[in-house]
Batch of 2 targets.
Target 1
Amino acid sequence: MDADFIVIGGGIAGTSAGARLAQLGRVVLLEAESGLGYHASGRSAALFEQNYGSVPTIALNKASASHHQTADGGVLSPRGLLLLGTDATENAYQHDVVAMKLTQMSAAEAKALVPILDDTVITKAAHHGDAWDIDTDRLIQNFARQVRGNGDIFQNVRVDRVEKTANGWSVSCGDQTWTAKVLVNAAGAWADHVAELAGVAPIGLVPYRRSMARIPAPGGHDVSGWPMIFGAGETWYAKPDAGALLVSPADEDPSEPMDAWADDMTIAEGLERYQTHMTEPVTRLLATWAGLRTFAPDRCLVLGRDGQVSDFIWVAGQGGYGFQSSPAASQLVADLVAGRTPEIGPEHVAAMDPGRF
């Protein structure tokens, strides 16, 4: 037998789960692409905001804070979050303020943070200073190093056969085969496909496209100290990035699992929503791309043993919360596998249990 655990998927879900499980036994991690974090993980907005997400997700976020801040030197740097509202978005704005526990400020105060805001359009603003950039590559590589401490990572491995055996599982790619007692499905947008290969009932996961444009720093401003900016109702957002600005239409279009790309019309619509709040127009694009955010039907993460096949472990449905929740989500998976009492409350564990489907 090659290992105790085979993990399919080398994004943040798979690398973090593999790192925790490596403390329980030998891990083999299989990634279809040439590098870790290629798909959704490599296209994340990379913000740690504890109050962003559903109730179970927020519980994971809060349980992840200490790891993000201290483990391996920490992966966080200050950013802050700014929410903008207009007369037309009053209801959505009020909902977001309450949901994310933001502190309201005047439009003038918001303009002091982001000088290109159009305070003739923006009627309301709210801020949270405790939102942080995540060094996503460092986080993945930290987890990957822990996997390699008690196992191996194989890249360019597109799994085409999964078989149940008397002793666990056999997973193959062409003429290569690995065996293990436990199979961990962390395949992101492809997680239901992996389940079907394994003869396990799919959950009904749906990948949704999220597009991004990178634009030059507006008006030549130094954007490095600007917060991440959200339109009320998350109809768009913008975030500083290496001297430029990332702008997303916050689109959520259902997709087949694929190497996603940005739709030009969707990008244009999102940039228009962004521009209505700003005094500086967008004159050119530096780049565009898209990723897939995959959700379960109830939009909660799917973490733990399959309801019918106990040695098949789901680490799926991260949506847009994979990086910020990964330390606690992976610890929860390891605790469940080891039969330990999880750190987060039982009501949250039940909300993310694959058996709920």
Target 2
Amino acid sequence: MQFTAKQIAKKLNGTVEGNPDALIWKPCRIEEVDEGGITFLANPKYTHYIYERHASAILIRKDFVPEKPIDATLIRVDNPYVCVAKVLHMFNTASKPKRGRKMGSRVAWSAKVGKGCYIGEYSVISRHAKIGNNVQIYPQVYVGDYAEVGDNTILYPGVKIYRECKVGKDCILHAGVVVGADGFGFAPTEDGSYNKIDQIGNVVIEDNVELGANTCVDRATMGSTIIHKGVKLDNLCQIAHNVSVGANTVMASQTGCAGSTKIGENCVFAGQVGVVGHISVGNRVTVAAQSGVTRNIGDDSLVLGSPAMPADKQRKVYVLQRKLEDMYKDIEDLKKSLKDLTKD
């Protein structure tokens, strides 16, 4: 697959500076790009590569001024980082939808499957399930009774959607995602054992959500666990029963949210964040990596640490922690001095 610089610029609403007919057949990292490759410059610390490497085309900002001549054709755009995502999509042959039902798949007679769908080998669509148009269901996917999957959604191999759960339009669920397994609910008894609490709710995933590989979203005890529109969860995330994750929130790998927590919109959770149950996190909150969120957080906050606290306060705590050994020694010296004084 190849494109000319002119074709790519047209797709990006950019302008060409150089040879518009330069052929491009591969996107490349800026430090590795060579002939036939296209790359982008978004971080100033990588600027030297555009003079050293021999790219066929480079995406740059419209206001970028080169310090010396550049061999490559330049495609000037408003935001190179955003535009490179569009370029990658152009070259992604896997983005071309498949069609048809493969041998070994099973679709219940009462299930409804829309037009233009692909159902891979050994996938199962259960009773009264509803599958929208142009849905891509890869091999070994399970869609449970009365479950729903919206138009243009992709379910990669091994995805499991339990009974009565709903997945919206234009979603991507990567391999091994489990939607609707029982929430972790057990009632302790007097003899120290536990009685299981039936989880009779469901999961609702709204439109344009992406769930990374082996991420799990548990069904609600009652009502719904809700992943609102535009949410992006990385691999190996855990969303417990009755959690609500607000629109356009993103969570990096190994983040876990305990039951009945409410997460606001446009939040950013870095890797390995843990959130306790039954609390609220406001809108536009950023939580640093490996933080432990143990209490409510208001809007527009930046928190870090375990337990998580406002970033400016936590940084002061870090400084004091590094001095603890010296502070302890000073205290011991003071105690010794006071003891000597009392002897006199």
